[in-house]
Design a protein that fits this description.
This protein is mainly beta. It is built from one helix and six strands, in the order αββββββ. It has one domain: Roll (SH3 type barrels), CATH 2.30.30.
């Protein structure tokens, strides 16, 4: 069975170094949009504990350069190279 996390990871892998845009619902129900470059990497700051949840994606937001995360189970759409996928 293919999960949202599998579909999102496949889209991110397909993007290469192109920007990816994700729309998802926050815990409070409001919608949020993040844009990131999957090839941008760096040190993740925080608790120092690794997240073992396969549904949590950690990315660097393109507009601010801050680390953000989103839950694959809450993703509504993902856009890669102009192609929008509704999950």
């Amino acid at each position: 069975m293919t999960t949202n996390a599998d579909r999102i990871q496949a889209a991110i892998d397909k993007a290469g170094s192109h920007f990816v845009s994700v729309n998802f619902l926050k815990k409070d129900g409001s919608e949020r949009q993040l844009t990131f470059n999957p090839k941008q990497v760096g040190e993740i700051k925080g608790t120092g504990r690794q997240c073992n949840d396969p549904d949590i994606f950690r990315i660097v937001e393109a507009s601010k350069g801050h680390w953000r995360s989103f839950d694959a189970k809450r993703v509504v759409t993902i856009k890669v190279n102009g192609e929008v996928t509704v999950l």
